[in-house]
User: What shape does this take?
Amino acid sequence: MKITAKQKDILDAAETEFLKHGLHNAVIDQIVENANVSKRTLYKYYRSKLDLFQAVLMQKYRAVGRAATIKYNKDQDFKIQLKNLILSEINTYQSVAYRDVAQMILRELMLSQDKAEKVFAQLPPTGASIAVWLDAAVRDGYIACSDVQMAAESLEAHIKAFAFYPQVFGLAALSEARSAQIADHLVDVICKAYDYAGA
Assistant: This one.
């Protein structure tokens, strides 16, 4: 959905305010001042501060460039493709844009579980792009899996355990070599868990 120039100004100003103060303490007056719009204009697009917060998160989420760009190709090596998919996910979780999303959501989880649940409900499902990829591999007979969505969520959880949660708590970002090592390990995990049929 295309947004207007005024909407972009509002979203950019809101992102700065939410990152700095969180949803609860963000001030609408400051957002409209920084966006150089009126409150009336802001509320024309967003009914509440929570709606605006959700819109900012969706903008950030799209900006991350999810691994859906990694398309399954039956004519390419399965393991190499899976490794590239995992590396793409690792890069996603290591990105500044994704950390911004996580920072805003985690802050709201600590302050208001109800609001955080409403926010989560608007975001794309976890593992969605991985599930599409794995489903194509199952249909081609490379792996055997009765619950692709569960497999995708499990793989995503493993990736987050290595590439996201440690960094949330202040550890350094992964090196390229460490990322490749993790990806190779997870490829082996998937192949063993789902009866990889290739060489």
In short: The chain has a mean pLDDT of 87.
